[in-house]
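User: Predict DUF4398 domain-containing protein's structure from this.
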Amino acid sequence: MNQDLKKLFSPLTILLLITIVGCSSMKTPATADVAVSKAAVDNAVGAGGAEFAPVEMSAAREKMRLANAAMAAKDYPLAIELANQAQVDAKLAQSKANSAKAQVAADALQEDIRIMREEFNRANALRK
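Assistant:
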């Protein structure tokens, strides 16, 4: 009778393990996507996204809020979708911020060059 029980429990055990792994694997990707997207939002904030791309940052933050709500409601597919959208918005905000900072630096460099040319021309005019 012991052999009969082992034969019965082996398939049930395997089925139970498959079910547990299947259910838990759905939560893990959603958690990972939400965490990666939160890091992207944080990086965008650190790059100046709120200052240079406020619309995109607002969208990213709102989508992160909705993704967290979906996680709490255990709607993992929706949480993944919203987290991915938030990540895209955050990366756009970060890119816009980096672009704006580069433009400010280029403008400052152009102004320095203009001033140096004026000084050079003034010095040459005094020599004549």
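The mean pLDDT is 85.
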